[in-house]
Amino acid sequence: MASSNQEWRRTTRILENLPDAVVACGRDGQILFVNALAEELFGYPRDELVGEPVQMLWPERVRERYTHNMSVFFANDEALRFSTEVWGLRRDGTEFAGEMSWGVVDTVAGPVLLAIGRDISRRLTAEARLRAVAAINERALGGASLSDLAVEGIELLRATLPIAGAEVRLGDGGVLASRGEVGGAGVHLAIGASDELVLTARSELDDEEMGLVHAIANTLATALARWQGEERMRYQALHDPLTGLPNRTLLRDRLEHALARSERESCCTGALFIDLDNFKSINDTFGHRAGDAVLVELGGRLLQNVRAVDTVARLGGDEFVVICEEIDPELAVALGNRLQDAIRPPLTVDGVTHRVSASIGIALSRTDPDALLAHADEAVYRAKAHGGGRVELFA
């Protein structure tokens, strides 16, 4: 008997020094031995485990299946086998996922079921995070909208990290996405020149958790750069590079929308065609740099003297067009005169004062954008034929 006890103690010393948690139980399911790593893993001191049913270490939802497996192992003297995902229950009631080798081993104490394993919950969580980040990256590469990506990234952070809230702030002061409560100093990660991912943590984030935050920030930075590049391309395709005003393409789009509303609501859309008088002499005498400066200044004056809903566009050269919705002939002529008054004041470029006038042709319509612009253009020619610097209404 003494010899058997010594042999069992030698066995338990070996089990104690294994690099993983070890739980041994007899055929009756009573725990015979746990090592220090098992105490740490399950949260019990060993004197509270030895002699107790091993089922106390299994979540209730798997106890019946694990108990059946144990009886099969004992009945068949099942050798050690490896399981990639088993579930354990800690003393505090939390569950964990583990990798485990288990099977029946013959000892001096009789057949013993050995379970040797480790907690892989953090690894599984990290792998799940990586898969989620990879999925967001894939959607970003696929052209998903920036706002959708921002929401997905923030929700992933809130679901997997101890944070109270997070948001994506744009440099212009706007918030692209926000979830939870964001306040205090928080964590700020740049995702653009002046854009940032901000989050408020409930506890300090470790290196692995911060790695996830950085991964999301990098994904959003890439998506934001792509979106900003696309926005620049769209803007450049629709705006005059000199004045920043809508170009011919955007003018056409807004004119068609305005006429569609005019037809529905039985009102008129007006087009004011503005052609500067003798502008060529500025370019010829003072150079294109001076001419460009004059055009930029006059474009700004036009914008300042129309309604916010009106469109001021540059067709090219020294020609501008203003599109006005819900307007009648009297109001259109009054607007033309106001624009004349805005254009006439002298302006100075590089110390040289220039005085500019314009011929303005006006046409009104509810349909046919081509005809509307053609009629406004015809009215401009009439204004120029009468000496320029005047407003003509097509009739």
Topology:
Blueprint: H1 2-16, E1 21-25, E2 31-34, H2 36-42, H3 60-76, E3 81-89, E4 95-107, E5 110-119, H4 121-141, H5 146-160, E6 163-169, E7 175-180, E8 187-190, E9 196-201, H6 207-238, H7 248-265, E10 269-277, H8 280-286, H9 288-304, E11 311-316, E12 319-325, H10 329-343, E13 347-349, E14 352-354, E15 357-365, H11 369-385, E16 391-393
Parallel strand pairs: 15-16
Antiparallel strand pairs: 1-2, 1-5, 3-4, 4-5, 6-7, 6-9, 8-9, 10-12, 10-15, 11-12, 13-14
How would you describe this structure in keywords?
single chain; 395 residues; alpha+beta; Beta-Lactamase; Alpha-Beta Plaits; 3 domains; 5-stranded antiparallel beta sheet; 5-stranded mixed beta sheet; 16 strands; 46% helix; 26% strand
Please describe what this structure looks like.
- The chain is α+β, with helices and mostly antiparallel strands and 395 residues long.
- The chain folds into 3 domains: 2-119, PAS domain (Beta-Lactamase); 123-238, Beta-Lactamase, CATH 3.30.450; 248-393, Reverse transcriptase/Diguanylate cyclase domain (Alpha-Beta Plaits, 2-Layer Sandwich), CATH 3.30.70.
- It has 11 helices and 16 strands.
- The chain has helices at 2-16, 36-42, 60-76, 121-141, 146-160, 207-238, 248-265, 280-286, 288-304, 329-343, 369-385, and strands spanning 21-25, 31-34, 81-89, 95-107, 110-119, 163-169, 175-180, 187-190, 196-201, 269-277, 311-316, 319-325, 347-349, 352-354, 357-365, 391-393.
- The chain has a 5-stranded antiparallel β-sheet, with helices on both faces. Strands 11-12-10-15-16 form a 5-stranded mixed β-sheet, with helices on both faces. The chain has a 4-stranded antiparallel β-sheet with strand order 7-6-9-8, covered by helices on one side.
- A hairpin with a 5-residue loop joins strand 8 and strand 9.
- Helix 8 packs across helix 9 (288-304).
- The chain starts with a helix and ends with a strand.
